[in-house]
């Protein structure tokens, strides 16, 4: 059995598909802190400088989902689902002009998931 | 009901080169009030071409503006302060409508504080002097401060006019031209300000453009025609802006949020007096501005021997908060600024409960009646848990505090500093030693001692760690908008003798 750290809802996937059609290759980066923070940001691939301090949590609809390692140490016991809601973020995330905002819904990893993913 | 939704035009424009101009692409976005989710007005959906036009206008204005006297610039800053002050009620009402904050806050905090920041920098630029050194009897080193030129500023939606008033005055006082993008959730008071002060500054000195982050914010932050970016927002965007700035070798200042500890030592309960009353209010300040403050005291640390008694008082005070129509002067907590913010806070309440946090009060959305039923309201919430939980580590930006207890000073500091951020902190005690030693050991840029949430001009504000760098609300911010010209002057008539 193989478990995942991240998942995505159908509604979010359909937004993502529109963004892929418009912008090409994309990545997710989970932001932290302030105003529009603690939300998944979607950028054109290559726009954000990534290095070994960015942990790859998984792939959603063919798109890599990253989080900085410092933040990951506080998040790794939870499973994340990217969803979408009406709204108007204030960051550079590409879905914002569509009048929607990706958000994260979280749950605790089960014991089995935690054993496989975090040990 | 003391106030109601103010009247707006159907649509507003950008302010570029001293004039209101429509966006090049002629596209607009609708801005709603979070109080009842009704339309306020349409604002320009600016694109790169609009930013380009503002950059041209600002660059055209920068030389003449940079050569004006400090007295002239200070005079104009004071004029802006007077205009805001004369229209305080109008600004407050528009701010409340746009952001959702209670009118008593915008009347008594946001707008008066904004006025004071304009006046502070008008004074600071008049009072300061440059430095010079006589290096030897013939050689003098003269240090002159020169403006950087054109500044890009991107501000958040939690204190729209106040954040503008933290950013614009120090940049203008030091002789820079500015292109400022307000947050797309709260474009209204910046626009109202430009309507009132359209003729105060020469054309091109102040430019305000509206639009979305990826379409207008990014072209501004990455533009090769600007000389610096000042940003308040969140960490990932901050990282991106620094990246873009590195391409242009531009300086940046960043204010990126926090997860501020508010620490209560047992001596606060030595007497049931005015100070204890103040301390309890200090703990409840997590709900101030609906928790939408970078320095929200969102981690409450209480010494274990007073924990039960102290928390009983804090819960009682929290439950006495009046959450109602933001236009009512008695309302203490209003609406969250937007739907996505509201949804995010609810998702944190959910994961907090899943992680095992205990809800001491609140813990859900607040459903108001009538027109307000469509607004975005969250009950002031206290969650009890431990510092490794996500609700203790992430900025929720809502009226939500996570509380835990500590044994002694060492454990208080260990918990306080166990965070990625370092923007604010609070320390409450009657012990004179603690009042100095504890703040010194906390890794944060602002430590409130026996107070919280005061933001006066003349006290520097800024972050440690992932909360950013640069110090605003103080004259030291002026140097973040300047470069030093060193003039090294020889008064020796004789040659070196080398050639």
Please count the helical segments of chain A. 3
SSE order of chain A: EHEEEEHEEH
Total number of helices of chain B: 15
What are the low-pLDDT stretches of chain A, counting only 5+ consecutive residues below 50?
A: none
What does this structure look like?
The complex is a heterodimer of chains A (119) and B (499). Chain A has 119 residues and is of the alpha/beta class. In chain A, 24% of the residues lie in helices and 37% in strands. A 4-stranded mixed sheet of chain A has the order 3-2-5-4. A 3-stranded mixed sheet of chain A has the order 1-6-7. The longest helix of chain A is centred in the first third of the chain and has 14 residues, at 10-23. Chain A is globular and about 40 Å long. In chain B, strand 5 and strand 6 (139-147) form a beta hairpin. In chain B, helix 2 (70-86) runs antiparallel to helix 4, helix 3 packs antiparallel against helix 6 and helix 4 (103-127) runs parallel beside helix 5 (160-173). Chain B is globular, with a radius of gyration of 24 Å. Classes of the chains: A alpha/beta (119), B alpha/beta (499). At the A-B interface, helix 2, strand 6 and strand 7 of A face helix 7, helix 8 and helix 11 of B.
Q: Main attributes?
A:
heterodimer, A: 119 residues, alpha/beta, 3-stranded mixed beta sheet, 7 strands, globular, B: 499 residues, 7-stranded mixed beta sheet, 6-stranded mixed beta sheet, 15 helices, 37% helix
